Amino acid sequence: MEALPARARGYVATVALLAVVCVVRLPATRAPWWPIVLLAALYTACEAVVRRRLGGTFYPVLLAGAFLLPPPAAALLPLAAGLVCPVEPACRAASPRRVWRAARPALAVWGAGEVHWALGGRSAVVACDFPYVLLPAGAAVLAFCLILTTLDGGLRAIAGQVPPRRAWHGLLSRSLAPVAVHGLAGLMMAVLWRSPYGPVAALLVLLPMYVSCWVFARYHRERAAHQATIRALVQAVDIKDGYTRGHSERVGQATVLIARELGMDDERVETLRFAGILHDVGKLGVPTRLLRKDGPLTPEERRIIELHPEYGHEMVRGISFLGEARAAILHHHERLDGSGYPYGLAGRQIPECARVVAVADAFDAMTSTRSYSRARPVEAAVAELERCAGTHFDPRMVDALVRALRAHGWHPAVTADEHAYRPAPEQHPVPSTRTPR
Fold first, then answer.
1. pTM to 2 decimals?
2. Do 255 and 325 touch, CB atoms closer than 8 A?
């Protein structure tokens, strides 16, 4: 929202006008002012702390207001936070951003309050009528989430951030689960508020919610750091070995296809994706002239290049989140018949993750243009893998890749720039089973 076009500013103004309309009926509700002021101040404090430390939003107080207050009163709660909490210093649309932060949740909490009150939720909260109290609360949370995602998608479409047909794609599914958790915390606050324990007990709910949000935010920050580490290593390999640029990402993609076809869980699929992406990181320790050499390698040069799995394993040994990906990096050039390297492991001695990466690596090497060979069609590469299954490759992994390719196809990126390609000399043909560099 740093450079809003005029139509987006008009959209924000319209949302703000609707929020004002939601509030104008407040005098008719005769709601007491002290809970409104208390909840508004509490939400403002929570927003200031959570945005500064966690970078997110904190909805339990808003949803507790939707369960406790008449809808027009609940719509007042986010206004102060939206207008008072600071925006990014570099933001050139500070005023529209403040208005948006105030009006967007105001409409959402108003809608949640209307749904909650229409379903008799206020009486259920006052009477602590479990489990019926969960029904109107759940409907209110759903309404809250729908309004937020509808408004967000509308702004994305009008501001031109994404095509209109994709503006709402995935917004609801990504936000529903965390908002539902906040809704449960808000319901606990509301029930305790109306209980003999009073508002002080209700405020205690916020502490474990804040801790859980902190843990969740820390997890995402660590995950982002992991991804940044992997991107840096892959970029270093791509810069060193320009002929195989993009190879790491494509091996990661093929590895995911195989792992999913084998029915592995999501966590292990992600680990194997890391293994595929980083399998050649040891090339950073190999002289560049060998990686870019045209034609066949001498025996001494081949021995040097065959050290790259061990180099890679040493490089990632201390990266704990890679898990079994480290074993795949070390053993992805082992062969089922024991003729591979670096240790000549055979059969089940080779870790399963390494057998997956070996097939993915060979497949992309055959379907990509290298300094010493032209790209083969996918069908030819699959035929070669099937021919070598049982000797070089695990037949189970080859079958999984074949099934995945039939179901999803293969859409790789370009390996290297066309001007960088130099065909291998005709007097030195490369055998079809040559080990990829």
1. 0.59
2. no
